[in-house]
Amino acid sequence: MAELTTLESLLEMGFDRNRAEKAVANTGNQGIEQAMDWLMEHENDPDIDEPYVPPVGNVLGGEADSQSNAEQPTLADTAEGGDIGYNETDESSKQPMTEEEKREQVKRLEELMRVKQAERRERERAEEVEREKVRRRQGQELQQIRQKLQDDDMKKLADQRRREKMEDKMARQRVKEKIARDREERAQKFGGGGPPSTAASFQPAQPSPSSPTSQGPPPTKKEYDESRIQVRLLDGSTITTVFKAQEPLAAVRVYVQMNGNTPEGQDFMLLSPYPRHVYTELDMEKPLKELGLVPSAVLVVAKK
C-alpha cells in the first residue's frame, strides 16, 4: 500500500497547512511521529499561526524526493529490457492512494496521535502531582515558621504580663510599707510625751532617792528596720539578701521566683526549719517583723 507523505498525513488529519508545514520543516521531515510531537509541544506558541515561508530550494512533503525519482526513468531509457521492466514496476508503486487507503492510513495516524496525547496528559499529570507535593511541603514549612513566631510572641507576652504583675504587686507593697511607716512615726511622735508626764505624776509617791527606778529611764529594746534572709533552695544551694522589716513575706517569695532556680510554673512554699513552721497564704501578707524574721532568719523552699 502506498504511503502518504508527512505533510499530506497531517493535512488529512485536519491540521492547518501553515502549522503542518512548520512541523515538517522544524523536524527535518523525519516522519509523522516527530511532526506530531512538535505540533503538540508548540501548539500554544504565540507565533504558531504566523505564515510560514520555506527557505529557497526547500520543498516539503517529499516533493523533492519525487523529483529526484522522476529523473531516474530518463536515465534508464538507454538501459536494457530488464531495466525497463524495473522502471515500470517502480512507476506502478508510485500510483496515487485510493480513498480507502487514505482513510486507513489517517486512522492509524489518528490512533498514534491519541497515544501521544495520552502520554502527554500522563506526563503533565505527573508533573502537576509533583508540583502539588512541593507546594504542600512549602506550605507546611511556612505554617511551622508562623506557629513558632506565634509561640514566641505568646511567650514574650506572658513574660511581660508576669513582670507587670510583679511590679504592680511590689508597688502596692511599697505603698503599704509607707503607710505603715507613717503610722509608726505618728505613734512615736504622739506617744513620746506620755512617759515624762506619767513619771512626774508618780514622783511624789516615791520619796526615796535611793530607789533603783529613779536612776534614769529603763533600757529600750533596739529596733531593727532590716532583716537579712537566707533561703535554701530545692537543690541545696542558698541565696541571701536584705529586706525591710516592714516588707511582707510575699516579697521574699517573689525574690525566690525571680532569682532562684525553681522551674517556671512550679508552685512552692516557704518554711522555717527551727522551730518548724510552714507559712500560709495569710502569712504572705504579714510583715517580716510581725513573723519574727527580724533581724535575720533562715527559710527553706519546699515543694507543695
UniProtKB/TrEMBL annotation:
Residues 196-205 have a biased composition (Low complexity). Keywords: Coiled coil, Cytoplasm. Residues 1-42 form the UBA domain. Residues 91-133, 148-188 have a biased composition (Basic and acidic residues). It is found in: Cytoplasm. PROSITE patterns: UBA, UBX. Residues 44-227 are annotated as: Disordered. Residues 206-219 have a biased composition (Pro residues). This is UBX domain protein 1.
